[in-house]
Design a protein that fits this description.
Strand content: 15-25%
Largest sheet: 9 strands, mixed
Family: Belongs to the LysR transcriptional regulatory family.
Keywords: DNA-binding, Transcription, Transcription regulation
Helix content: 40-55%
Low-confidence stretches: none
Shape: elongated
Number of strands: 11
CATH topology of the largest domain: D-Maltodextrin-Binding Protein, domain 2
CATH superfamily of the largest domain: Periplasmic binding protein-like II
Pfam family, one: LysR_substrate
Number of domains: 3
Domain HTH lysR-type: 1-58
CATH class of the largest domain: Alpha Beta
Mean pLDDT: 88
Distance between the termini: 42 Å
Radius of gyration: 24 Å
Structural class: alpha/beta
InterPro entries: LysR_HTH_N, LysR_subst-bd, WH-like_DNA-bd_sf, WH_DNA-bd_sf
């Protein structure tokens, strides 16, 4: 069974179009059509209903689809297993900066121990930057805050609470309760202007008719965290970003009354139609252990 025909079938199923599958595979539409027809002849089964430009899977096609995915994944894993005897496999991971700084260092040692012949390359950036690198095939997959795009699939890893953090000796640490009104009077550092996280925090103040004292706006949470450590202001931050500083009692979580419930979602993202990698499964398990 020709693996390229299987791959073409999976792409057509994923994107719902011969033309779009051809674009994703960098082939012409007739080439994709020829591969599907070759596969149908080989297994003697009609896989698609065709009605003009519209296509849909036949009953047999729907049955065959998950088996085709397993065939392609098994082929790729076997190919990797054979190649690693002589050629180190390079895995390129795109990662949001805070994840690269605060999560990956804890799980990569066990990954390296498990996959001794895999050479890892990590590229960092904003989540949107990593999204574009996934689409452009600059990275094998990304680990980012939730991003949506018609060309990618995603797997939710976990939801990370966003809390208010303050430096050592801050006045809030002596208070029995802290309200949104109290927070609005403090020098506030906000990160990633215009993001969903930023808008959620901003709406918190708007709902109370408050104008927060926004002292600084920065473009990433690592910068925001370091400014809080220096005592420049206070900040709402995801807990993964401040894990070490919290454990070392350099930063402190402040509960707000009434409680403010919001979180940041961390996802794997990868090119639509591309089989899920065995490396992603391993990293996902390790991240669940961390959380």
């Amino acid at each position: 069974m020709n693996i390229e025909n299987i791959e073409a079938f999976i792409y057509v199923c994923q994107v719902g179009s011969f033309n779009k599958a051809a674009e994703a595979l960098y082939l012409t539409q007739p080439s994709v059509t020829a591969r599907i027809q070759s596969l149908e002849r080989e297994i003697n089964i009609k896989l698609f209903h065709r009605n003009g430009n519209k296509i849909s899977l036949t009953e047999k096609g729907e049955y065959f689809f998950p088996h085709a995915q397993k065939i392609l994944q098994s082929y790729q894993e076997a190919k990797y297993g054979l190649q690693q005897v002589n050629i180190p496999y390079e895995l390129v991971i795109g990662s949001a900066l805070s994840i690269s700084n605060n999560i990956l260092p804890d799980i990569l040692p066990s990954f390296i121990s498990e996959f001794k012949d895999v050479r890892i390359k990590i590229i960092t950036g904003h989540s949107k930057d990593i999204l574009h690198k996934v689409i452009n095939k600059d990275v094998d997959f990304g680990i980012v805050r939730t991003e949506t795009h018609p060309q990618i699939d995603s797997i939710r890893l976990y939801n990370d609470p966003i809390s208010l953090f303050v430096p050592r000796n801050h006045v809030f640490l002596k208070e029995e309760s802290v309200t949104v009104e109290d927070v609005s009077k403090q020098p506030l550092i906000l990160f990633d202007y215009g993001s969903m996280d930023w808008l959620t925090i901003h709406r918190l103040f708007l709902s109370k008719g408050l104008n927060p004292n926004i002292y600084l706006e920065v473009d990433n949470m690592e910068t925001a965290k370091n400014l809080v450590l220096q005592g420049v202001g206070i900040c709402f931050l995801p807990e993964h970003c401040v894990k070490k500083e919290f454990e070392n009692e350099e930063l402190f979580r402040v509960e707000i009354t009434p409680p403010v419930k919001t979180n940041i979602s961390i996802d794997f993202i990868y090119l639509k139609g591309k089989p899920k990698s065995v490396f992603m499964d391993f990293l996902k398990d390790k991240m669940f252990e961390q959380h």
